[in-house]
Amino acid sequence: MIPMEGGAQASTTTYSAMKETMLSPRFYTTDHEAMNAVDVSSVQAEWDYVIGELRADYNKGHFQRSPEFDQVSLDDMPEGLREEFKDFLVSSLTAEFSGCVLYAELKKRMTNPDVRELFALMARDESRHAGFINESLKGLGIGIDMGFLARSKKYTYFAPKFIFYATYLSEKIGYARYITIFRHLERNPQYRIHPIFKWFEQWCNDEFRHGEAFAVLMRSDPKLLEGRNRLWIRFFLIAVYATMYVRDHMRPHFHKAMGLDPDDYDRRVISLTSEISKQVFPFTIDTDHPAFWRGLDRLAKIGQTNEAEGKPKTLAARLRRMGRTTVAVATFARLYTLPVKRHALPATVRLQPVW
User: SS3 for 206-224, per residue?
Assistant: First the structure.
């Protein structure tokens, strides 16, 4: 039993955050010496601007619960929505906190002043985000012991360049997701199932600024965007889009309650993320290709079937799951080989959030 305010329910929530699945957020470690050797001198002016934006700390004091948080009860939600909303919050907290843990560790081990300051500032932001979600969970009578989570979660090693690709995309797609939800609920407040969504506009700007920092980091080393590394960029683009699409289609009650069609929502988010990514990646996935959406739909159906069947308990069930896994791998491979749209990189890396 995890000792924690909130008792057994809180403990169960912490354990749910520790579950390892193909879709669950992971905790990462990396090569600290290689990260410490990063040289941003070739993009120093843009780097200084981005760091200045993070130093300004525009959201200091923003992440504070208001009294309306106490007016929401999970008991008032239908069971399907209740479970999916909890999963949304727990998954979001785990993703934010995993970044906080990685960046805090990098800050502790860095001597390079440029990257050390970046990771210190990002750890600050991600800690706020995770803490705010956890306060929201506690307001619902549950919560997560983040210290226990940091000690107990399995860590995955990622080379620095993979950290760059994955973090850049997760921050930019996070921006696209949050701003799309915020704008939708701004127009349709009757679908706002919890007050936390009122905080998404400034929150997503944190995500945008984090992505800007990693865009500049990647442009500081042209090799990261050339040669065989383009194969890795393509992999991460497909993986991030597919993971989001599958996860969203496993939350039908959540999206219905929010007045969102997950097909339309994900198409808008992927389209926006693809447009933003032109600032640093030399190509985008051809999301106009009909096979792209067919492939994502196939992966989503496999995910839904696996979720509905649960952990296989018989040989027949295990064989069925193995068959679906084979189809999923083949589908991902087909998505990977789809055409891409190439473009010249802009002279200036930085963007401003205008969506």
Answer: HHHHHHHHHHHHHHCCHHH
Closest CA to 298 of 251, 333, 339: 333
User: What share of the chain in percent tops pLDDT 90?
Assistant: 77
Alpha carbon distance 146, 142 (integer Å): 13
pLDDT tens for 158-168 read 899 999 999 99
Phi, psi of 66 (to 5 degrees): -105, 165
At residue 21, the pLDDT reads: 45
Rounded Cα distance, 242 and 229, in Å:
20
Say which amino acid occupies 321.
R
Residue type for 173, please?
I
| pLDDT tens digits along 39-58 | 999 999 999 999 999 999 99
> What's the rounded Cα separation, in Å, for the pair 136 and 132?
6
Which residues have C-beta within 8 Å of that of residue 335, sequence separation ≥ 6? 238, 242, 291, 292, 295, 296
Q: Tell me the torsion sign for CA atoms 202, 149, 161, 267.
A: negative
Q: Which residue carries 């699409």 as its tokens?
A: 245
pLDDT at 11: 46
pLDDT of residue 4: 38
Terminus-to-terminus CA distance in the chain, angstroms? Answer: 45
Q: What's the burial of 209, exposed, middle or buried (CB within 10 Å: 0-12/13-18/19+)?
A: buried
pLDDT score, position 18: 44
Residue 16: is its pLDDT beyond 60?
A: no
Distance CA 65, CA 132 (A): 8
Q: Where are the domains of the chain?
A: 7-229
Check whether 272 has a pLDDT greater than 80.
Answer: yes
What is the rounded distance in angstroms from the CA atom of residue 286 to the CA atom of residue 274? 9
> Cα separation of 47 and 45, whole Å?
5
Q: Are β-strands 340-342 and 283-285 bridged in parallel, bridged antiparallel, or unpaired?
A: antiparallel
* 176 in Cβ contact with 273 (< 8 Å): yes
